[in-house]
Amino acid sequence: MRGGFREFLLSAAVVGAGLAGLWVWPIVTDGGGAAVVTRIVEIYHKSNARLGPAMAVLTGPAQDALPPVLQPAADEPQAPAARIEPVRLAAAEPVVSAQCAATSPDIDAAVIGDRLQLRIFEASVLAGVAGTQGAEALTTDIVFERLDLSGSYDVTGTGAISLPAIGRVDVLGRSLPCIEAIVAKRVFELFRTASTVSAAHAARPPILVRGAVRSPGAHAHSPGLTVERVLAQAGATQAHDPASTVRMVALDSRRRELERARAGLELERMRLEAAMAGKELFPENALTATTVLLGADRVDSERAALAAETITQLMRQVHTAEHLRDLDARIEAAERQFEIAQTHFDYFDHRRQQQAEFLKSRTITEAHLDSTTIKAMQAEQVLLEKQEALLRLQTERHLAVNGAALADAQRQNALASELRNLTARSDALESEYQTLEAELDVLRDGGARLEVTIERQDGPESTRTIAASPATLVRPGDLVTVSPMMEGTKKSARLDVRNLPLPVRSAQSQ
Fold this sequence. Notes:
The protein is an alpha+beta fold and 510 residues long. It has eight helices and eleven strands. It has helices spanning 2-31, 33-59, 176-191, 227-234, 243-277, 288-294, 296-360, 366-444, and strands at residues 115-126, 140-145, 151-154, 160-163, 167-170, 194-203, 207-211, 217-219, 450-457, 463-467, 479-484. Strands 8-7-11-9-10 form a five-stranded mixed β-sheet. Strands 1, 2, 3 and 6 form a four-stranded antiparallel β-sheet that branches. The longest helix is centred in the last third of the chain and has 79 residues, at 366-444.
């Protein structure tokens, strides 16, 4: 037991001597043995300055004196007290280029639907303690990743990403270097630390293709993708493509359906116009082509509907006319009764006035005057009743006239609304028919005339349309519309799809 403790003390002494040698050797090589003594004295003074008051309280004034060995010489200059500098140096604020204030036309600019992979690294600059030799050489950068801020973030419909503890950052239309600078500046403003940001695209929204292609829908985006490659990938219609024949058959069948639908809408329009005009029959010369397309049964059904509408309107008019005639007769009788009642009242009222004069001359008694007054009052009551009945009949006739006019106006309004809806449906069918005819013309001519437009979203609520050429670069999220070239379009906008490579189906289109 005693031998083991002795060996432990010996090992500890060897290790202590080695550490002391590592600390003393650089000082000896620079200034010799005197430098070692000076350094020890400095350390003693610093420790005494900090621990002296506490030691004085514990041990008394006798402990304030330095041991003779550590007392500095009288003629030896005293080293100034070293000032302790802050360990952490200030971080410089990141600078965002003025070009990042506007949207970038670069293909890697962020768009709505992007998913950005951000990695944020924080750099801490540490410095050595001032006053020591070689302190400048101890300055060190410590870099570590902020796992609480790094991650994948989606560009929302407002064009911003949402970072924890930082908030929303607008990145729509900004290139990856600008996004890195903007995020680094936001991190500095919040934490006052120097940060390095690495941004990359984790996922990009697909390209949407519609129109005269065999594989419309979503197609994956790749760097350097042009309109020519998009058409090759989506399968633009071509003369040597066997699918064009099948497409022509389908389009021709759809064209016949549209022709029948157009004829049906035209027949309904004629029925509505005839009903609004109060006519009972269609113009026969306008039904020839319609009868051929729709058949006689459909024409007869529309005729029956028009006849039913006309009969209903006629019956409503007859009923209104009979009701008004009845009211007119009742009003005429009420007016005669009112005139008779007025005559009775005038007679008794005049007689009452005469008897009032006779009473003054004592020709008649008061009983005769009272009897006449009662009869006058009764005649006045009958007059008022006849007047009220007359007014009631006149009001009923006025309401009947207004009700008939209102019903007719509502009927006309309903027919006009139905006609407007019919016109909108007819316009939509006509637009589809014209597009279909144009596509059929393209297929018949060998698929040589196509027009490509790109709808690109520049902001949350702003979209612009670009007339594309074969070499136009396509960005993620673009809506590519391939439509047949209409007559009169400039030749410079045409795309010769006969020279395109064979269609390449993407993984998403299969």
